[in-house]
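Entry 12.
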Amino acid sequence: MTSSLANLRQQRGATAEAEALYREALEAQRRVHGEGHTSVGTTLNNLGSLLHQVGRHAEAEGLFGEAEAAYRTSLGDDHYWVCIALFNRGRSLFALDRFEEAARLFVGQMRSV
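Predicted 3D structure (tokens):
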């Protein structure tokens, strides 16, 4: 529920409020499900997308990496959500001018599809 409210706040441009709600949801999901759960991965990915949107690319890149790990644990290496996390992480690396790392992730993501 909190994560859905965060999505709505983000869509309406209330990014600070959305960030706080995503972090609240993430804390609750980690407490209930542990790190390697799909809901944790999804909230990490959503929070990373918000941070990427507002230019906080280094923080976003780390969250996308955590989302990737959660998805790999819960869904396996070949699931398309892993590909989404890899692509998003690559976008953040590209925004940070870390082009070679971004390219490796993009190529790895394409091989997984």
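Annotation: Residues 71 and 82 are 6 Å apart (CA to CA). The longest helix spans residues 15-33.
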